[in-house]
Write a structure and sequence with these properties.
This protein has 5 helices and 3 strands. By secondary structure, the protein is an alpha+beta fold. The longest helix has 27 residues.
């Protein structure tokens, strides 16, 4: 009876000693080891390099907005010159002045681009309409089309 009372007193007082192996097991499961941390960093680095390589490849094949903007500007500029001929000379006089006089200042084209135009004198068999097409080539590929009416 005396021994059971002492055991209960020592448990209540917090003096019960657990086996050493269970204490070591519970301490080691509370965090990562140095090897696990290093392996995690290496794997994370490999994944980061792969993602960065994918971004670099995507940027190399993405369209350059500077070239696209410049090509659009060149096409719109030539279209404005052609449509300006219509307003100045009338519907019959709608033509591209850069074909007849390529040395005009308005016909200047940057070295890396080409600009051409075509004017179809009827649209679906109706002579009161013309289809104007401006094509830009070189660093930017673009086709701009406009329908011009005789009004």
């Amino acid at each position: 009876m005396k021994s059971s009372m002492m055991r209960s007193k020592s448990i209540v007082a917090g003096q019960y000693n657990a086996p050493q192996s269970s204490i070591l097991t519970s301490l080691s499961s509370k965090g990562f080891t140095l090897i696990e941390t290093v392996i995690f960093i290496v794997v994370l680095g490999i994944i980061g390099v792969a993602i960065l390589a994918a971004f670099v490849a995507a940027l190399q094949f993405s369209p350059n907005t500077e070239y696209a903007s410049r090509g659009t500007e060149l096409a719109q500029q030539r279209m404005d010159v052609i449509l300006g001929q219509k307003y100045f000379f009338g519907f019959i006089g709608t033509q591209d002045p850069c074909i007849a006089s390529p040395g005009l200042p308005v016909c200047a084209i940057p070295a890396a681009y080409t600009v051409s135009s075509s004017i179809a004198n009827n649209w679906l068999g109706d002579v009161n309409y013309k289809v104007v097409t401006v094509t830009v080539g070189g660093l930017s590929q673009l086709v701009l089309t406009s329908l011009v009416a005789n009004y």
